[in-house]
Specification:
The protein contains 8 helices and 7 strands, in the order βαβαβαβαβαβαααβ. With 260 residues, it is an alpha/beta fold. A 7-stranded parallel sheet has the order 3-2-1-4-5-6-7, with helices on both faces. α5 links the parallel β5 and β6. α1 packs across α8 and α4 packs parallel to α5.
């Protein structure tokens, strides 16, 4: 298959302020941060890895301007850090318009061998972390009275079964359900809540934690016969964050041919 063509920004998020979790490095969060800047947004990025986060901030600020990029360490399993992260967005730019909840944690373990700690850790980062950040986002957006958008990162494994992924699949299915319920509650104060569900978006961390055999198997399932680039998922997040999706809420959009 031909390599996808990177599409230039169209200023779809001009003048808007966005916060993005788990945005350090070369994954979906980092790609979303870059795409948002290309679309004209100001961003506050967070991540649990302070060094990588600072490196990402410095690189983006050098390219797009330090007045449009800020960062703050944020471990989404820590409520105090989550509150500080969202408070920082208000201090920097007088409020926020868009929240992207990208933080998640995977792993592979057969259910019969899975320890409580493995299950709890994946659920705490992936589902509980999304809950904490969605709650903080809706409190801020409701108080501002100016509407806004929340985009959660789910996964196709929230729909389909995959061996060794019971904890991750349960967490991502929970993110989808949380998205639907939050959307109904947030509609009354003009906030939309949607999610993306990628299947296989390739980045260096995924290569480290996934066998070549499994990556080959997952790639073969894709309609295009290749994995997604992280920026291809980020493009869909931009769409959901923009005015082009103004009547969409409570939806989970698959960035893949795989639904089941």
């Amino acid at each position: 298959m031909n390599e996808p063509r990177y599409v230039a920004g169209h200023r779809l998020l001009e003048g808007r302020t966005a916060v993005i979790t788990a945005a350090a490095g070369a994954g979906i969060g980092g790609a979303t941060a870059r795409r948002f800047l290309e679309e004209g947004a100001r961003i506050l990025i967070g991540d649990a890895h302070a060094r990588r986060l600072k490196e990402t901030e410095e690189a983006l600020a050098a390219e797009f301007g330090s007045d449009r990029v800020a960062s703050l360490t944020c471990d989404v399993t820590d409520e105090e850090q989550v509150q500080a992260f969202f408070a920082q967005a208000g201090r920097l730019h007088g409020g926020l318009d868009i929240v992207v909840n990208n933080a998640g944690l995977g792993g592979t373990a057969a259910l019969v061998d899975m320890a409580d700690e493995q299950w709890s850790r994946v659920l705490d980062v992936t589902l509980n972390g999304t809950f904490r950040c969605t709650r903080a986002a809706l409190r801020s957006l409701k108080a501002s009275g100016r509407g806004g958008v929340v985009v959660n990162n789910a996964s196709v494994v929230g729909w389909r079964a995959q061996t060794g992924q019971a904890h991750y699949a349960a967490a991502k299915a929970g993110v989808m359900a949380l998205t639907r319920c939050a959307a109904l509650e947030a509609a009354e104060f003009g906030v939309r809540v949607n999610a993306v569900a990628p299947s296989l978006a390739m980045h260096p961390h995924l290569v480290k934690v996934t066998s070549e055999e499994l990556l080959a198997e997952l790639t073969a399932r894709e309609a295009f016969g290749r994995y997604a680039e992280p920026w291809e998922v980020a493009n869909v997040i931009v769409f959901l964050a923009s005015g082009y999706s103004s009547y969409m809420t409570g939806e989970t959009v698959s960035v893949s041919s795989q639904h089941a």
